[in-house]
Amino acid sequence: MSSFPLDLSTEILRRLAVKDVFRLRCVSKLWCSLIDTPCFRKLHVSLSPKSDPNLLAIFQEDESNLIKFLDLEFPSLLFPRIIPNQPRDDTNSILGSCNGLVALCNEHRRDKSVVYGFGYDPTTADYKLLKSAHFFYKKLPKRAQKYYNLHLCRALYWKAEIYSLKTNSWREISGCPFNCGLGGFDDVAGILAENALHWLTQKYKPKPVSLRIPRHQEIAGFDLVGEEFYSVPILECFYGAFSMTMAALDGHLSVAASYTNGCVDVWVMEEYGVKESWNKTISMMQEEVPNHLIYSINDMEKFKVFPLAYSRGGDKLLVHRRGKIFWCDLKSEEAEFDDGEGVLVDGNVEITTASLVSLEDYRSEIDGKTEQIVVEDDNSNNNEKRKISQKEQEARSEDA
Predict the structure, then answer these.
(1) Spans of biased composition, class Basic and acidic residues (predicted)?
(2) Using one digit for the tens of pLDDT, what is the confidence trace for 145-198?
(3) Which of 232, 262, 291 marks a domain boundary?
(4) Does 262 score more than 60 pLDDT?
(5) Rg of the Cα trace of the chain?
């Protein structure tokens, strides 16, 4: 392998799937040293969505510190993983996944009034965790007391903090400008799409608590690069939905709108930020929502549909509904749910992909270690060590 150009080896390896890259570590010392470097791992992740389309569904077992990985190519195989250094009586919720990294939150320590988001800033090659909390009036004004109960009062303000994995530190940013009213954010974990995090928000009209339905929904976005909040435009037909859920399909923002007549429409924003680019990909049918359940928040969960991912061929959509995940055919004009099919899962489901990214790479940066690729030639006659600077590797990533 000594006669094989190092630059060519790097370009070939960075375009392979993760499983293939791990197998090729045993080809030579040269390739093993190259693959194990932080610079190569960062180069590989820049192409991983294209080179490794295999997706894994991860979900949390109820009342345990065990998470399970489900290979969507082989749905009958489960790969359980125990969360290290975690007491048995502690449970965790999945806050998000990005480039193979999964963010978890301890349920016992999580404040219910806090929303989170986990994503990647490509301009700084940094992973960021957003934490935003709302605070309430301690005492309502007299003119507002006839409209609101104390525990349902309007949010006074939001305080947001962001964590940088690169610097291993928290810092405060400007708060959320959305007046979320009585409901606040529907989702605790933000949806990552287009280098931004997204949540569904609710707005209630100033009516008595018993008459606070209907509500007005909108999508709040947070740009991970500019670190600013903004509103994502939605269609008017979303306002009549009984419930809404969000997802990221092939990197695009997606919404599943469920209506009381049983219809579930899945929409994808093909051009981010453009209202007219919302495109309906599929309509599905489930049972109608009984009138006595329309205003029940607990029963509403039974009728929520969560789109997860497209199949490798792009002709099917993976859906999570009532504790099961199954495929829906996108070619059919109107799909129906079959509760007898699907794979049984516990809790919320997150989609991730295999990756070479390691937290150790960022810990070494925090410790101030210089980052270089050091590869050793396995030729017994010439045990030469060659180095490639970090700037050169980053330049290759930008050119790609």
Answers:
(1) 383-400
(2) 444 444 444 445 567 889 998 888 999 987 666 644 434 455 668 899 999 999
(3) 232
(4) yes
(5) 24
Which domain covers residue 382, as residue numbers?
6-47+367-399
Task: Give the model's pLDDT for residue 211.
Answer: 38
Kindly state whether residues 111 and 214 are assigned to the same domain: yes
Could you report the per-residue pLDDT of 192-215, keeping only the tens digit for each? 999 999 988 765 444 444 434 445
In sequence order, the 6+-apart residues with CB closer than 8 A to the CB of 112 are none
Query: Do residue 252 and residue 324 come from a single domain?
Result: yes
- Asked if residue 284 and residue 224 are part of one domain, the reply reads no
The span from the CA of 375 to the CA of 34, in Å, is: 5
The more confidently predicted of residues 295 and 150 is: 295
State whether 269 and 388 are in the same domain. Answer: no
Burial class from Cβ neighbours inside 10 Å (0-12, 13-18, 19+) for residue 370 reads exposed
Looking at the fold, whether 191 and 101 belong to one and the same domain comes out as: yes
DSSP state string for 281-296:
EEEEE-PPPPGGGTT-
Note whether 301 and 294 are within 8 A (CB): no
Alpha carbon distance 16, 47 (integer Å): 9
Statement to judge: residues 198 and 314 lie in one domain: no
pTM of the shown model: 0.77
Whether residue 228 sits in one domain with residue 101: yes
Detail the DSSP E strand segments found in 20-108. 55-60, 66-71, 78-82, 92-98, 101-106
